[in-house]
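quick one before i forget lol
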Amino acid sequence: MIIKTRVFTLSAIMVLVAVTAAHADSNSFMSPMGPIAAAQKAHFLKIIAITLIAIIPVFILVPFILLKYRRSKKSKDYQPNWEFSLPLEITMWAVPIIIVLLLSLGLWRATHALDPYAAIESENPTVNVQVVGLDWKWLFLYPDLGIGTVGELAIPVDHPVSMTLTTDTVMQSFMIPALAGQIYAMAGMTTKLNVMASEPGQMQGENTQYNGNGFTGQKFITNAMDSADFDAWVEKVKNSGITLDDASYAILSKQSSRTEARAELGTSDMPDNLIFFTLPDTKLFDNIVHKYHGGVSMMSHTQHTDDMTENSQEVSQ
């Protein structure tokens, strides 16, 4: 009895420590900071409760059977010719079937309810963010605000955030566990992820798809803040950021860690290990995606069209 109590106490302590650690770092959906992750946690706990219907009887019946039918016990329960029991067969097959049906129904409902492409309804305006996966860093573009960042994704609390993702390199997997599940990003294609933070705080985001030597360092901080702080952050980025033009993007997009990119592009006005940009061209994201379609960037195509228009006007004159 003492051993059982100690084991139970130790297990409870381990669970408490794990939950506390997850909450402290906000790196897990078990410590959600948004409605999507909260729904994922609830679904996970529901799955555990359903599967325990099959697991708990096993832990109870195995020691019971071992004790009841042990060799040393002289019992009249011994039935060497027994081979079939209808109630037992029904129980053995019906319970797993019911569990599978319940799990399947829950999975189907959760998959549709937590569709990453589905917009989150809110009275507050949506913040649009374009995400570009590079080797080995994430570039976040705010086209409506004219800014970009590397190393930090800032979002206002209780505002839906609509992210459009791509890469300018190999396939990557974008994930902020405390807000939502992972979603893949691929060159020449776009995927969608909608999230919302329900409380201020910092969360870790990362790439979960191996993509080379700098894979382990391709992480970033997601900073959820209230609207006033977010507006101040936007002004800070605008005032301290450098222009994200062809030259600076060429440096940023080459294979390098965030620290190495910061050494080439950062200034003393920027926080440590972060890079801030201003966006003179809000079509940068489209150009990155489009350059994998036939090898011609949208910027070059637009320039070529403008040149043809000017030449036509000169001829007509």
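fyi Residues 35-68 form the longest helix (34 residues).
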